[in-house]
Design a protein that fits this description.
mainly alpha, DUF4834 family protein, transmembrane helix, DUF4834
Length: about 90
């Protein structure tokens, strides 16, 4: 009796959740899409304003946007171990 009651309640709850999801999920998705669209528009307007401001520099000024990375140190061969000269021997 208890198992049958549990199954009936579980099925009713699943149908209720399914019905509510059909009602509320489209609104939720629409809201998420609108938020992403708004963020994209904000980024685009920010990018176009930044490029406009960069073009407004006074004539004759120099600015460097790229700084090269520091040169990497090469490993010392003294610490690499012993090396043996190699000669290729060809047979006749």
């Amino acid at each position: 009796m208890g198992l049958l009651r549990f199954l009936i309640i579980a099925i009713c709850v699943l149908y209720l959740v399914r019905a509510l999801a059909r009602i509320f999920l489209p609104f939720l998705f629409k809201k998420v899409v609108n938020n992403m669209h708004q963020k994209m528009n904000n980024q685009q307007t920010g990018y176009s304003q930044n490029t406009y401001q960069k073009s407004q520099k006074p004539e004759g000024t120099i600015s460097v946007d790229f700084v090269p990375p520091a040169a990497k140190k090469k490993p010392k061969l003294d610490n690499a171990g012993d090396f043996v000269d190699y000669e290729e021997v060809k047979e006749k």
